[in-house]
Amino acid sequence: MLIERLWAANSLRNFHYLIACRETGEALIVDPLNADQCLAAARTRGLSIRFILNTHEHRDHTDGNAGVVAATHSKVLAHAGAASVIGGVDRGLSRGDIIQVGRTVELEVLDTPGHTRSHVCLLAHGDSPALFCGDTLFNAGAGNCHNGGDPGLLYETFVNQLAKLPDTTRVYPGHEYMARNLAFTLDREPGNAEAARALEAAKATTPEVARVTTLGEEKRVNAFLRLQNPEVIARLRERFPEIGEKPDARTVFVKLRELRNSW
Ligand SMILES: [Zn+2]
Ligand SMILES: [Zn+2]
Is 3:41 a contact under the CB 8 Å cutoff? Predict the structure, then answer.
């Protein structure tokens, strides 16, 4: 499986992804925003885009659909619940569906609500699994819930689905927010030495070549995956004394998300 990450160089800091079968050159594009950029990237690499996958309905993840369809006649795939909002969807997706690209690529659909109610992540299994997680999980962070989302649902998606994937899973989010999110982790957990090192490294790089993390690393540097950490809880209690000494993980997650909204 070939994975090409394309940096959109916009103020929202979007990533697009080309996922392709190395044998046939057939490809799927995740969350096209800049259609011309996606088409040029496929052309340069000798790939034919057959599918568009929108992780959710927000415009910064769908605006390139029309341009890519016009040029490639590719099929548009999206969560069945988001299809009517996105428009032009050829196949509505549900949990457990498999998307086949060429001969060698199989992607499992995860139903991952929270950022919006109808959000999918794609999971490629194998020795080196890969997760295309849109606006649910970010490097060292979590998606916001401002536009149709629900932090309680996002918590359940994190704990019941994403955190259970293998630690070797590579994480391919919809936006590049690594440095900002690591700074938030350190604000919540100043003693996290690995997050401090990762922040220095992130500051010294550019989005085009930003590091791809694994889920194992995320569990060490992402506050939203460190809900039992004593320092995270103690710092949170300073701000929200009402959560008590032993808040449950859901409360910690929701309060962290609330803090991050205005941080
Ligand atoms: Zn979004
Ligand atoms: Zn987005």
Answer: no
Identify which ligand lies nearest to the alpha carbon of 14: 2
Here the tokens at position 66 are: 């029309």
Q: Is 123 helix (H, G, I), strand (E, B) or coil?
A: strand
Decide: 211 and 205 in contact? Cβ < 8 Å. yes
- For the CA of 56, the nearest ligand: 1
Q: Which residues are the active-site residues?
A: 56, 58, 60-61, 115, 135, 175
CA of 211 to the centre of ligand 1 (A): 22
CA distance 145 to 153: 10
pLDDT, mean of residues 253-258: 98
Edge-first strand listing for the sheet containing 105-111: 98-101, 105-111, 120-124, 130-134, 170-173
Distance 121 CA to ligand 1 centre (A): 12
DSSP secondary structure code for residue 34 in this structure = S
∠ Cα 180 185 187 (to 5°): 90
The ligand whose atoms approach the alpha carbon of 115 most closely is 1
Q: Give the distance (Å) from ligand 1 centre to CA of residue 115.
A: 7
Distance 103 CA to ligand 1 centre (A): 31
Count, in order, helices (H) and strands (E) of the chain. 9, 13
Whether residue 27 contacts residue 16, with contact meaning beta carbons closer than 8 Å, is answered with: no
Q: Which pLDDT value is given to residue 127?
A: 82
Q: How crowded is residue 43: how many other Cβ atoms within 10 Å of its Cβ?
A: 12
Per-residue confidence at 142, pLDDT binned at 50, 70, 90?
very high
